[in-house]
């Protein structure tokens, strides 16, 4: 019974070397931060997808563009990324039309270029916001196994150093040290696997949203070009 208690998970962590315990604490902190970003990013990507679908339905319903622009401006934070891209392009188009009518009524090319640049800038801002913290997940997924391996190597090295004071080396003598060392690798994998899976999933979802944003920018630019004739 005592042997079973000594080889329990918590007992192994408590009896581990200080360096190994610090590595375990670091991996646990990385895992907690990783799961925090995973849940936050999951909600953010889901909300961005729903807001994009809702705005696309409103836009392609054939409503007035000025009314849609006014609604997107008044509810800017809640309207979603695609609505903010539309608002940037439509707002720049309206300002450009007003300015060109005072200077040169035929200067429509510069107006369209300004609207397209405004949408591209808004597109990059929205994409940067969606991509935030993905690098952290990628770093956790790639580095955590090596950090855990460092703890394992250190723990095994410390276990074999302890055998120098033992007259006869047996499996019972070396097993606790090796077991507590291997826990570091297990914690490292526990931190790395969800981070890698989440990173790949979020990257795929964000890439699909980026394609929808780019397609909208081109389609809306064509609509503005037809309206400026």
UniProtKB/TrEMBL annotation:
Question: Which sequence ranges are marked TM in the entry?
Answer: 18-39, 134-157, 177-199
- Grouped into one coarse class, the protein's main location is membrane
| Cellular compartment(s) | Cell inner membrane; Cell membrane
Q: Which InterPro entries match?
A: ExbB/TolQ_transport (IPR050790), MotA_ExbB_proton_chnl (IPR002898), Tol-Pal_TolQ (IPR014163)
Q: What Pfam families does its record include?
A: MotA_ExbB
Domain MotA/TolQ/ExbB proton channel: from-to ranges:
83-214
Topology in membrane: Multi-pass membrane protein
Sorted keywords for this record are:
Cell cycle, Cell division, Cell inner membrane, Cell membrane, Membrane, Transmembrane, Transmembrane helix
User: Which family does the UniProt entry place this protein in?
Assistant: Belongs to the ExbB/TolQ family.
What the protein does comes down to: Part of the Tol-Pal system, which plays a role in outer membrane invagination during cell division and is important for maintaining outer membrane integrity.
Quote the subunit structure annotation. The Tol-Pal system is composed of five core proteins: the inner membrane proteins TolA, TolQ and TolR, the periplasmic protein TolB and the outer membrane protein Pal. They form a network linking the inner and outer membranes and the peptidoglycan layer.
Q: Which HAMAP family match?
A: TolQ
This one is known as Tol-Pal system protein TolQ
Gene that produces this protein: tolQ
């Amino acid at each position: 019974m005592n042997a079973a208690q000594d080889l329990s998970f918590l007992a192994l962590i408590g009896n581990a070397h200080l360096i190994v315990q610090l590595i375990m604490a670091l991996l646990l902190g990385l895992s907690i931060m990783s799961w925090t970003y995973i849940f936050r990013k999951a909600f953010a990507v889901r909300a961005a997808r729903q807001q994009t679908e809702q705005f696309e339905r409103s836009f392609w319903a054939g409503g007035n563009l000025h009314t849609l622009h006014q609604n997107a401006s008044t509810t800017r934070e809640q309207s979603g990324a695609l609505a903010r891209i539309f608002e940037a392009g439509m707002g720049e188009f309206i300002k450009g039309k007003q300015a060109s009518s005072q200077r040169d009524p035929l200067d429509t090319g510069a107006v369209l270029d300004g609207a397209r640049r405004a949408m591209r800038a808004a597109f990059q801002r929205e994409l940067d916001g969606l991509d935030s913290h993905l690098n952290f997940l990628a770093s956790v997924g790639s580095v955590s196994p090596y950090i855990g391996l460092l703890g394992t190597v250190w723990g095994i090295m410390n276990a074999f150093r302890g055998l120098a004071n033992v007259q006869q080396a047996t499996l019972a003598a070396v097993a606790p040290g090796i077991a507590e060392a291997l826990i570091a690798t297990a914690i490292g994998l526990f931190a790395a696997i969800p981070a890698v899976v989440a990173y790949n999933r979020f990257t795929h979802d964000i890439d699909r949203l980026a394609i929808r944003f780019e397609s909208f920018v081109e389609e809306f630019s064509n609509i503005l070009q037809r309206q400026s004739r």
